[in-house]
Amino acid sequence: MKRKGSSTMMRLVTFSIAFVATLLLIGHAESAKIVCVFPTASKSHVLGAQALLKELAHRGHEVTMVSAFPLKKPLKNYRDVYIPIEDAFSAIMSDFMQGGSRNMLKIFPKILRAAQHSSNVTLNAPQFLKLAREEQFDLALVGFFLNSFVLGIGELFRCPTVLYFSATASGLTNHVGNPAEVAAVPHMLLGQRNPMTFFDRVANTLVHGVEKIMMIYMRQQELSYYESNFPADKGFPSYDNALRNVSLVLLNTHFTQTVPRPYLPNMVEVGGIQINVKPEPMAQELQQFLDGAGRDGAIFISFGSNLRSSNMRQDKLDAILTMIRGLKQRVIWKWDQDEMPNRPSNVFIGKWLPQDAILAHPNLRLFITHGGLGSISESMYHGVPIVGIPMFGDQDSNVAQVVREGWGLSVSFDELTEPLLSGAVQEVLRDPKYREQVQGRALLYKDRPLGALETGVYWIEYIIRHRGAPHLHYQGADLNVLQLALLDVYAFIFAVLYIVYKTIVLIARRVKHDGALADENRVSAGTVVSMKLVQGVVIAWVVVVVVLCCCVAQLEAYRILCIYPSSGRSHVLVGQALLKGLAARGHDVTMVSPFKLSKPVPNYREIVVQKVDLGQMTRDFLQKNEGNSVGGIVHLFQSQIRTAEMAMEDAKFQALKHEHFDLVIVGYFVVDFVLGLGPHFNAPTVVLFSAGMTKLTADFVGNPRAVSTVPAIMIGGKGAMDFLARVKNFLFAGFENMISAVSVYVQTSYYDKFFPPDRYPSFADVRRNVSLVLLNTHFSQATARPYLPNMVEVGGLQIKAKPDPLPEDIREWLDGAEHGVVYFCLGSNLKSADLPQAKLDAILSTFAQLKQRVLWKWESDHIPNAPPNVLSKAWLPQDDVLAHPNVKLFISHGGLGGMAEAKYHGVPVLGIPIFAEQFQNIQMMIDEGVAMQVDYKELDERTFSRAVNIMVREHRFAERAKVISDLYRDRPQSAMDLACFWVEYVARHRGAPQLHYPGADMNFFQHESLDVIAFLLAILYAVFKVIKLVLRFVYRKVFKSSRKTKVQ
Predict the structure, then answer these.
(1) Rounded-to-integer distance, Cα 374 and Cα 275, Å
(2) Fewest beta carbons less than 10 Å away: which of 213, 732, 826, 1009?
(3) How does pLDDT run across 650-689, given as a tens digit for each residue?
(4) Whether residues 73 and 185 fall in one domain
(5) pLDDT range class, residue 551, cuts 50, 70, 90
(6) 197 CB burial (10 A radius; 0-12, 13-18, 19+)
């Protein structure tokens, strides 16, 4: 049950505190000089960028806006450079209003020429050239509208470039390499059909193909403009490099307006950035007109900043005016002239009207609009239903989406008559379902961890702080189509398989030839020998592949159940941290795990279950060096399955089966079958994984794996992959697919045991119906990759913003370390006491020679022959220890949690990886310049002492660790706040079905569009055959006629 009864005042206070705390967490970049170039004649496009720049100016940055639309009144720190632009769009828009063709293929060249001409005029205006000669900037913001060549201003001002687009993502704005996901995400011009049918996907593929052709056409125009404004002989990079060097793309859209899609970290949605949280005051006359509308209310008519109502065809205008005369409501109309002929008495007109403020007025009942994305966003935000009269571009699809969502109706401009429009208007006004539906959409649209403006400001400042943030660069932006689609890798694999096949065929022929020359006994022997040779070749090939793969703020409280059936305490720590955070926010949480908290926490209930002891396995890891053996991995998998099975069978857990929970969190470590608890409790399911994305976790929500660009977690690495690295990654992806299939097969029987098929959905359906996946990683720890909205990085979730007090003896030991402290820990599973004696002696001998004190997590009573500078404890609060300023070095096995804590606290690492992804974790720390590694096999006093002494003596590691710490900490929200927001979001929205990605329900052939490609090829083949038959028929007719003529 949900706790209710909180007063309105308490809710407002809680929200205010959360909002202020969020702002404090965001922080500010140092005051920076920012230039924005927005060369367009469309005022509505500029409004979002103006809102962003005004907020940046308010925060102390010095901003310069180059556009045709200066602010109406001056603003501190905000400078307008006014460059008038010939309104080349007017003739095109006027033609629309007169009922002319709205075919985008015909209109696009005209719009492109107008947009490029406006941009070129701006770049060559004396006002801009003066800026270029005399000033420097820390960041350039480019307002995009078919003008990519303007991106050269980043190099002109020697600063990072950010692109702002006033709509949703498309191929035209894909400067950072974000995947298009053609099979699952409809193009902006098609509308948001979710899910798409087969023929929708065919249409989507064709539209994307046309877009590619348009981009090729555009490129020629853009290249000419770019080279004239940014010539290579003056040191400017090539046009393609300028496009690839975009640091960030801001999109004025939100996933609730479209189909959820994967985004890279540097492609950020800021939908509604132009909307004021607190509406600005209106002119007195307008305010009085709206206030006096009474119970009947008012209607707002606007066709945007480009389309002029006065240019409308007379019969259409008369239809609207006749409809208005029959209304009881008052009407506000954005009219671009001083007077309106035959204006009805209930109409207020204005050349420019504050649309956002008007839509926010409580008396507004309906918005009649052309369906521009900005207008749709504002209408949704303020909960106002619409009647859409779309004209061109994405307006048809925007309005169609509104109709599908049930908060508006559409009227075709070509078919517009007074009865048709009047019927639509009256239906929306009289039927309360439209207002109720849009108010529900408004709640969804507003429900975000940060507001659009705060998000935009944070990321702008982030790019400035990190000088372009090159760590956000996605490898896919540098790959061509063949590489992205892995066609070169497929060709290589097929070539290798072909060679193997030919080898086997040649051997088989040789066997056959030998048989023809020998007697039967010799044939049999030769056959046996040859077949063994064939078997050897096949086995050798399999071994090669396997070896290559191996190388390769809450207003209601919820009742939340978390089950974390893991034998590894370090994994469970992450779940415990999240649940403590949720409990602190007032939620009633229950944790089922093998590990109990050290002290009770309010609102936090524990069910402690048994676990499989990993002692012998971890001893083998250390003593026999079997960390990455197949047997070790299989044993680890079996132990997790058995631990989960024991948890499900535990009597204390069984007692929970009849309780009510609003949400189930599954602490994930290769155990899927417990996901059945979601449907059992009729509650949404959230998966929490203590590492980065894998095939197993990606499958829960359908997140793309990006095999061609992102190394698998067991491959590691942060740089660009070369061809062989991509081959290795591809093979490992295949290995992951096999492991995933085996895992699902094995666990199906466990699922059916606890969740019988006659009462529960299938295992496959349960795995696909996960609402949210939380990953305990951060993009600064690995390669930037695309994520869906419901796959969220919360790296460092277990790290406390303010460390807990240390036990007194440990604190005194650390405080008194004149030369600093070395912290030694091999994690929660590996025990230092299990180290072979030779390796233990080497470590102790090294420590005895150090000036530094040593704090050692040692699980037994004491360390034999420990030097006096060593203090050992069976348990240590690692996060709090690493937060102490005297800790100079962390000697670790390289677990992801420990690496995150070391990064956060800026402590260099000496890695001794033992198994699994620990090798890759340490290697990435080495690549960042904050770590060294000692190979466990070769660990002796010489290798260990050398590494320890280098790291405690050379300051470069500590200096670099502080830089990496700043990067890791720099986020719009803390990991805990972000995780709690999304958990609460899923609970609030009952599983948040709006986050569901259509690609999650597709098979391989559909996701890769292979069925669509096959269909299109079949069509092309059929067309080819028809043409061939027609030509043959014509040829025969002509030839036959010719022969008859000759005979005559």
Answers:
(1) 9
(2) 213
(3) 999 999 999 999 999 999 988 999 999 999 999 999 999 9
(4) yes
(5) very low
(6) exposed
pLDDT of 313 strictly over 80:
yes
Do 419 and 459 lie in one domain? The reply is: no
The encoded tokens of residue 727 equal 């081959």
Choose among 72, 104, 84: nearest CA to 40.
84
The stretches of 585-722 forming alpha helices (DSSP H) are 615-623, 630-649, 651-654, 677-680, 695-701
Is 867 in a helix, a strand, or coil?
coil
The pLDDT of residue 624 is: 64
Q: In the 8-state DSSP scheme, what is residue 30?
A: P
Strands 246-251, 78-82: pairing is unpaired
Q: How far apart are CA 273 and CA 164, in angstroms?
A: 11
Rounded distance between C-alpha atoms, residue 62 and residue 135, angstroms? 12
Helix (H, G, I), strand (E, B) or coil at 1002: coil
How would you class 325 by CB atoms within 10 Å of its CB: exposed for 0-12, middle for 13-18, buried for 19 or more?
A: middle
- CA-CA distance, 781 to 631, in Å (whole number)? 29
Q: Range with the lowest mean pLDDT among 375-384, 631-640, 722-731, 865-874?
A: 631-640
Residue 11 lies inside a defined structural domain of this protein = no
Helix, strand, coil fractions of the chain, as percent rounded to 5: 50, 10, 35
Tokens 């930037």, residue located? 784
- Asked, for residue 539, whether it belongs to a domain, the answer is no
List the CATH number of the domain containing 955. Answer: 3.40.50.2000
Cβ(774)–Cβ(787) below 8 Å: no
Residues 6+ apart with CB under 8 A from 82: 67, 68, 70, 127
Nearest to 444 by CA among 687, 250, 256: 256
Domain extent, residue 467, equals 32-275+452-472
The structure tokens listed for 933 are 């590694």
Residue partners of 619: CB distance under 8 A and separation at least 6: 831, 834
Residues 442 and 457 in one domain: no
Q: Which conformational region is residue 717 in: left (phi greater than 0), alpha (psi within -120 to 50 degrees), or beta?
A: left
Q: Kindly give, in sequence order, each residue whose CB lies less than 8 Å from that of residue 425, ignoring residues fewer than 6 positions away.
A: 299, 323, 327, 366, 368, 387
Nearest CA-CA partner of 44 in 231, 406, 307, 360: 307
Helices (H), 101-151: 104-123, 126-134
Domain endpoint, select from 765, 796, 827:
796
Distance (Å, rounded) from C-alpha 741 to C-alpha 752?
A: 17
- Please indicate, yes or no, if residue 725 is contained in any of the structural domains: yes
Model confidence at 4, pLDDT cuts 50, 70, 90, reads very low
Q: Number of folded domains in the chain?
A: 5
Q: Fill in the DSSP letter of residue 370.
A: -
Q: Do β-strands 161-165 and 246-251 pair in parallel, antiparallel, or remain unpaired?
A: parallel
What is the end-to-end Cα distance of the chain in Å, rounded?
Answer: 100
* CB of 493 closer than 8 Å to CB of 732: no
State whether 265 and 295 are in the same domain: no
For residue 527, give Cα distances in angstroms to 219, 505, 540, 694: 63, 14, 19, 45
Domain annotation covers residue 990: no
Reported confidence tier of residue 101, pLDDT bands at 50, 70, 90:
low
pLDDT in the model for residue 688: 98
Question: What is Dmax (Cα atoms) for the chain?
Answer: 121
The predicted model scores a pTM of: 0.84
Name beta bridge partners: 873. Answer: 857
How many other β-carbons are positioned within 10 Å of the β-carbon of residue 692?
A: 24
Report the DSSP pairing between strands 685-689 and 663-668.
parallel
At 75 the three-state DSSP class reads strand
Amino acid at 28: H
Residue 453: in which H helix or E strand, if any?
Answer: helix 452-465
pLDDT at 546 over 50: no
pLDDT given at position 783 = 83
Q: Are 145 and 41 in contact (CB under 8 A)?
A: no
The pair of structure tokens assigned to 818 is: 């004149």
